Amino acid sequence: MRFRKYKHAREDRDHDHCEGCWAKFMESGPPDVLTEGYVTDDSSRSICSTCFQDLKEEMGWKLV
Fold this sequence. Notes:
- By secondary structure, the protein is an alpha+beta fold.
- Helix content is 17%, strand content 25%.
- The protein has one domain.
């Protein structure tokens, strides 16, 4: 897992959702949109800071 500024992984999509709580990630947007968070090494899954803290031990997530 890495913490980084959100960058959409696919050109046909402008946002992703946290795998834990479904919070929205976008490169920019309204105040309730997340613009940074944790991503898997292949950038296929996004995790918000709250879910990362809550689930890191259970899921065995390690920061790179």
